[in-house]
Write a structure and sequence with these properties.
The protein is of the alpha+beta class and 147 residues long. Helices cover 25% and strands 36% of the residues. Strands 1, 2, 3, 4, 5 and 6 form a six-stranded antiparallel sheet that branches. The chain is elongated and about 55 Å long.
Length: 147
């Protein structure tokens, strides 16, 4: 029966943008408390460091920062290589709840040129174009890690 099953390929469908957003309702009048808790969390527990461009506005209940993570690619010899990825985290507390989003992923693909930044979609296209991608599957690997 397994011989007749069609082959499966993880994440081989059309590209969808990598990102996440959520809106969470709470009781009214919690805006200042939600903002204070979110600010404390971003200062003490936000694990994606270094944090860059931290901007807060207590009156509007917003926090925006750039976090830094890492994704791993594999070279043709099977060795892992880490590539830094920056993303924007946005939080907004309202009277009826809060919402947050993670998006705007940027990759720094070349360690020798740390100022060169490429959008994640462009980086995935470059990985797909590599000749060794059929063996390394770096495009799917990076998409899964970023997601």
């Amino acid at each position: 029966m397994l011989l007749l099953a069609p082959p499966l390929h993880a994440q081989s469908g059309p590209d969808t943008p990598v990102g996440y957003s959520e809106r969470v309702p709470v009781e009214e009048g919690e805006q200042s408390r939600l903002f204070a808790r979110a600010l404390s969390w971003t200062e003490h527990r936000f694990a994606y460091t270094p944090k860059l461009n931290v901007k807060t506005d207590a009156t509007a209940g917003t926090i925006r920062l750039t976090g830094t993570g890492r994704v791993k690619t594999t070279d043709t010899k099977g060795r892992d290589q880490e590539v830094p990825v920056e993303f924007v985290f946005q939080f907004r507390a309202t009277e009826t709840g809060y919402e947050y989003s993670v998006g705007s992923f940027q990759v720094r693909p070349n360690a020798s040129q740390p100022d060169a930044v490429v959008a994640l979609d462009e980086y995935l296209a470059l990985l797909r174009a590599e000749r060794a991608n059929a063996r390394t599957h770096n495009d799917r690997r990076v998409t899964a890690q970023a997601t």
